[in-house]
């Protein structure tokens, strides 16, 4: 039967804010997460346990505070929530675990066990499809990063403070274009990395079009290649940036192919500090509206998300990048 249920992963609080030049107050980040939790969105990427020298906004002590806060004061939400945090290495995992260990009964280790008052926590590792991007973003080769992720995934599965298995998402960046190597990213290489990450125990592969250089035909080629390599649709999420305005077109291609999980960012916030010129993620408002026009079910309240997009872009002094958001608000 045709499955019309869509899972949206809201990455605004992490990807959306990590590129801002000025420091964003903790209260604003928490308010953003709390407000997003009221909209029907169920998975929210809330921070990154990365080196503060590399990405000051996402600075790990702030992410520790955010995680701690969310466990002690889970947002009131109509549905159980999952909060996701990036971890690039063992140090990031240790930092995340140290918060989880302080509050072992406050979190559920899988979305299935989450309740309204007990959110699930998910961790995300992030590889790249090109050597240049891997080097810039992680300061190591693809092979070195995969060796690190093997250990991180294993540790996340085996030695978290509950002794249970945390869900792990694995990103692959620059799958449809690299700021340093151009358009011709090899889809076979992407499929190979995805297969390796799944074999390590990753629960989901998030394919990042970091630069927004992806086009409809190349999105299709990549999906065909992944299918030929045996990667299942249910293991794939797409993470489109909208730099060239192609995100919805690419999402349509992925939808037709059977993909049902998409990342988005309220107000179209975002960018990547190691992808010069790349702008925001596809806006949550745009994706929710697009899905509604197709009869797909996101479970997300468009008006509420539009209000948040308007508020957060004003709050941090960014241009409001969602066409749908602006239209809905009559601006
Ligand atoms: P490195 O410099 O090679 O790390 O960076 P190192 O192991 O040599 O350590 C150097 C220092 O960093 C040490 O401190 C470590 O303790 C510290 P010192 O002894 O000098 O005082 N350190 C850490 N501190 C906090 N948390 C940690 C951590 N690890 C080491 N986890 C490293 C390697 C991976 C740490 C660095 O390159 C890094 O943090 N990279 C992350 C970059 C990043 O966050 N990029 C943005 C997110 S990815 C993205 O946006 C793409 C995505 O949206 C998908 C898409 O669009 O494609 C996900
Ligand atoms: Mg991104």
Which ions and ligands are bound to the chains?
A: 3-hydroxy-3-methylglutaryl-coenzyme A, magnesium ion
Per DSSP E runs of 2 or more residues, the count of β-strands stands at: 8
Any idea what the shape is?
globular
Low-confidence stretches: none
Q: DSSP helix count?
A: 12
Which percent band covers the strand fraction?
Answer: 5-15%
Overall average residue pLDDT: 94
Largest sheet: 8 strands, parallel
Approximate helicity band:
40-55%
Question: Structural class of the helices, strands and pairings?
Answer: alpha/beta
Largest beta sheet: strand ordering: 7-6-5-4-3-2-1-8
- Span of the ends, CA to CA: 40 Å
Which value, in Å, is the CA radius of gyration?
A: 18 Å
EC number: 4.1.3.4
Pathway: Metabolic intermediate metabolism; (S)-3-hydroxy-3-methylglutaryl-CoA degradation; acetoacetate from (S)-3-hydroxy-3-methylglutaryl-CoA: step 1/1
GO molecular function, one term: hydroxymethylglutaryl-CoA lyase activity
Keywords: Lyase, Metal-binding
